[in-house]
Amino acid sequence: MTQRYGNAPGPETFEALAHAAFARIPEPFAQHLEGVTVHVEEFADEETLRAVGLEDAWELTGLYHGRPLDEESVWVGGEFRPRITLYRQPLLAEWCETGVTLEDLVTHVVVHEVGHHFGLSDDDMHRLEDEA
């Protein structure tokens, strides 16, 4: 039997799911997310992939762009606001491959990228996930 998914959710659905994930982040963390924006792109571009050490655009589902809070300073200016980019096509593929709900998948990626906003490394976050 063939599974049918219908039309893939568009960027506006991903953005709404990301904002819903932000709304569930508890205080005192939530108060430090003001100004973090969410963007949805189909795939990461070549420059972004090189910057994070990946060759395959299907491997990157999200990325935090910005200076982590623990590195901010009044002496730094002229930078873009921090933002989280969700990569729609890799997220859709993971959704289909894993059976995890799209809401849970987007929430996981958003929380992971928010962790970078707070200065956590990928290793820190994997360790926290393993301990949970």
Structure description:
The chain has five helices and three strands, in the order αβαββααα. The protein has a single domain (11-71, 80-131), classed as Zincin-like (2-Layer Sandwich), CATH 3.30.2010.20. Helix 1 (11-23) crosses helix 4 (102-117). The mean pLDDT is 85. The longest helix is centred in the last third of the chain and has 16 residues, at 102-117. Strands 1-3-2 form a three-stranded mixed β-sheet. With 132 residues, it is mainly α.
SSE arrangement:
Elements (H helix, E strand, L loop, with lengths): L10 H13 L13 E5 L4 H7 L9 E4 L17 E5 H11 L3 H16 L4 H10 L1
Parallel strand pairs: 1-3
Antiparallel strand pairs: 2-3
Helix pairs in contact: 1-4
Please state the second-level CATH architecture. 2-Layer Sandwich
What is the typical, i.e. mean, pLDDT? 85
**Strand line-up of the largest beta sheet:** 1-3-2
Question: How large is the count of helical segments?
Answer: 5
Assign the CATH class: Alpha Beta
The level of helicity is: 40-55%
Approximately what portion of the residues adopt beta-strand conformation?
5-15%
In short:
The chain contains 5 helices and 3 strands, in the order H-E-H-E-E-H-H-H. With 132 residues, the protein is mostly helical.
What are the key terms here?
single chain, 132 residues, mainly alpha, Zincin-like, three-stranded mixed β-sheet, 3 strands, 43% helix, 11% strand
